[in-house]
TrEMBL record:
Species whose genome carries this gene: Harenicola maris
Subunit-level organization: The complex comprises the extracytoplasmic solute receptor protein and the two transmembrane proteins.
Transmembrane segments: 21-39, 51-70, 91-113, 154-175
One Pfam family hit: DctQ
One annotated Gene Ontology cellular component of this protein: plasma membrane
Name of the molecule in the record: TRAP transporter small permease protein
Molecular function terms, GO-annotated: transmembrane transporter activity
Keywords, in A-Z order: Cell inner membrane, Cell membrane, Membrane, Transmembrane, Transmembrane helix, Transport
Membrane topology listed for this record: Multi-pass membrane protein
Length: 189
């Protein structure tokens, strides 16, 4: 059982490490879009797409970098008492709090899947069966949701990125849960 946990931790940490490192370069994409926005507004006709595209890139940067942040321990946490605790007590507390985070991420993931199904033209109440039907060919994509701006981009690409990011965050939280279990086991031995 503990070998399975260690294998899971290695696999998930490796994936999230690579994706997180790639997502870090999204800040340069964001800077390029905002630079183009400034140049086009100053010297040319203002671009309609720059503000929304900058928002989309920022969402992708943030949501795909989140699992990496948790893995590296660079996420924000209240260190008023936590910093003085022993490794065992930290692991016990983290074990409890990560369970709440996993529940919260499951709710967010369900909402993201529902929202993405809606953006693909599905108005029912079973979004997972809709995606299953897309794979098997029993469902079809309806009228796709578009933003209400002048540019009117489709919303499904950024919502799909949100699903991916939340799923990776959920996997990373399970990895952190396993790390806490292994820490407690090592402390007990």
């Amino acid at each position: 059982m503990f070998r399975v946990m260690q294998g899971y931790i290695r696999a998930v940490d490796a994936v999230n490490h690579r994706i997180g490192r790639m997502a870090m370069y999204g800040i340069f994409v964001l800077m390029g879009i905002l630079l183009w926005s400034s140049i086009s507004k100053t010297f040319f006709v203002p671009s309609l797409w720059t503000l929304e595209m900058a928002q989309f890139v920022m969402v992708a940067y943030y949501i795909l970098g989140g699992p990496y942040s948790i893995q590296m321990g660079t996420n924000v946490r209240m260190d008023l008492l936590y910093g003085e605790w022993s490794t065992r007590r930290k692991a016990q507390f983290d074990l409890l709090t990560v369970l709440f985070l996993i529940f919260y991420l499951c709710v967010l993931l369900y909402g993201a899947v529902s929202s993405t199904a809606y953006s693909l033209g599905y108005w029912g109440s079973a979004p997972f069966s809709f995606f299953g039907g897309l794979i098997t060919g029993t469902e079809e994509i309806g009228t796709m949701e578009r933003a209400s701006s002048a540019w009117r981009p489709y919303m499904w690409p950024i919502k799909s990125v949100m699903i991916l990011g939340m799923f990776l965050m959920l996997l990373q939280c399970i990895s952190e849960l396993f790390k806490d279990v292994l820490r407690l086991r090592d402390e007990a031995n």
